[in-house]
Fold this protein.
Amino acid sequence: MVQVLSNKFGFIDLSLQEPLMEVLTPASKNLQAYILNRQLLYLYREFRAAEKRGMLPWIRADELSAYFPNISETILRKKLKECTILRV
């Protein structure tokens, strides 16, 4: 992003501003945590949208694996189980 500033002498200063975003390295612990948090956010948003429509919230595990191919099936099922209400 370029910022244009004028100083007290009437000259125009151009400066570049670096983005303040962390770039995650591949296969790092921070990247895995980010992906899992993104998955949980997706699940909660889908459940809330279904509740707003008056439907019973549900999502299939194979649908999740299509959205998050980098996460193993067992971890997907575990996280899905954590955020659902099991009915007997």
About this structure: Residues 41 and 84 are 13 Å apart (CA to CA). The chain is about 45% helix and 10% strand. The mean pLDDT is 79. The two ends are 55 Å apart (CA to CA).
